[in-house]
């Protein structure tokens, strides 16, 4: 008989309760307003986005990588497992409680990835960090950007522009990256419109389906030209 789920911690957010649950010593779930964001039972696509994003640049000297968001740390762990010992990895995470979880009660699933000396945590919106780098000529450029956020790229809004996946932030992301750098973006479903936006912003782009990650999970992969 399976053990019951135990609520480890809950915090209120504008989108609803953000909750960490645990079953036994190995099973963890992060949910928001009842929707599962991350589970130790399904990690294939989270690992894939990091593998695809980091493998092409693993041979570079001291590669700089930006990872967002944190979740249970599987994407970060996969990136660290691919990258060399002299890599520098920035983790952008909006909610400090998620960082606390990954350093505390939920550290085990990722092998305590946040304790790796290559990692620096940046609390805040990943788009702010991208703009900071893009606008600072003295800031080291990024060799890879890995985005594993909520449901991934949606269809374009009828009005305005998506702040996470629109053309403007794609152009900013390109400006923050080295030539040949890799942008890897997780999606709950493939978005061909996002692939087109990547190309128009100066990336060679493709969409890679991830078998076993979810019903239609995909990685949108772009190489900066």
Walkthrough of the structure:
- Helices cover 25% and strands 33% of the residues.
- With 225 residues, it is an alpha/beta fold.
- It has a single domain (42-224), classed as Rossmann fold.
- The strands form two sheets. It has a seven-stranded mixed sheet, with helices on both faces. The chain has a four-stranded antiparallel sheet with strand order 1-2-3-4, with no helix packed on it.
- The longest helix is centred in the first third of the chain and has 11 residues, at 44-54.
- It is globular and about 55 Å long.
Count all strands and give the number: 11
Low-confidence stretches: none
Cα-atom radius of gyration? 17 Å
Instruction: Please give the CATH class.
Output: Alpha Beta
- Given helix and strand content, the structural type is alpha/beta
What would the average pLDDT be, to the nearest integer? 94
CATH superfamily assignment? Vaccinia Virus protein VP39
Return the CATH topology: Rossmann fold
Shape: globular
Query: Treating each run of at least 4 consecutive H or I residues as one helix, how many helices?
Result: 6
| Percent range of helical residues | 10-25%
Second-tier CATH architecture: 3-Layer(aba) Sandwich
